[in-house]
Amino acid sequence: MEFSAEQIAGILEGEVQGNEQVKVSGLSKIEEGQPNTLTFLANTKYESHIYSTNASIAIVSKTFEPSKPLPSTLTLIKVEDPYSCFAKLLEVYDQMHQKTPKIEKNAFISESATVGEEVYIGANAYIGENVVIGKNVKIYPNTYIGDNVRVGDDTTIHPNVSVYHDCVIGKSCLIHAGAVIGSDGFGFAPNEKGEFQKVPQIGNVILEDFVDIGANATIDRATLGSTILRRGVKIDNLVQVAHNVEIGINSAMAAQAGVAGSTKIGENVLIGGQVGISGHIKIADRTQIVAQSGIPGSVKRPDTILMGSPGIPFEDFKKSHVGFRRLPQILKRLQEIEEKLK
Question: Which residues are catalytic?
Fold first, then answer.
């Protein structure tokens, strides 16, 4: 599908400089721009590429003034915020590639399930007993939806996802391929023989509205009660969230991070990649944890930035790192002083 510069400017409430009728059918990065594609310039670090790009249309800031001649084939669309406007176009582009509502062959839907309007259910998907699926939901092939699960309106569940029984998925959630929602928490207790005996996990998982779950992430069901990801939480690929964890509104975890059982994470918390968080602790609102850090205890003060293992305040870590790098010199000087004292 093609769009003209005039149409795109109308969507973005922007101003066209150049040929209003030039059309594009794809998107590109500014340094790799090709004819008939649209690109954007939001970071001045990439400005040099706009003078050589082959893209047909570029979204730029209203304050952008070229320092040298632009390609004659390039049309500009000036907007308040190029990055957010380009993101809006990406969303439109993505929606154009969404599946049209239908139920494909070989999908199994229990007779007791309730399926809303305008729903897509892919081939070999399984919808269990008493499942409730809202409007405009998309469930891609080979996905398993267990008994008594509820899926809110406008949610998309990609291929090969498993949602175990009794879990609740809110509205406008996005669950990527291979994710597992509601698998058993890691609950075992040693018996009198020293053997591990499984503790049944009879709770569930609740994903509130606008939650995103990355590919192959795992959200464990609670032992009792619920594992809860609050509204707007974003979970990257390969993240592990253990049983009875609660993650506050608009918090985010990057890839390969893991949080142990019963930990309570506050609102607007940012957790970097490969961070490990112990169980039964609390993380204060707006905490930021740098990648590969380890958090063994509660973070009580909001707006704290932590780094290292165990995690310490970021500024302290930088000072400590300087000292660590100088440690060989310090030891050498210490040995020299000891020799002189002898």
Answer: 243
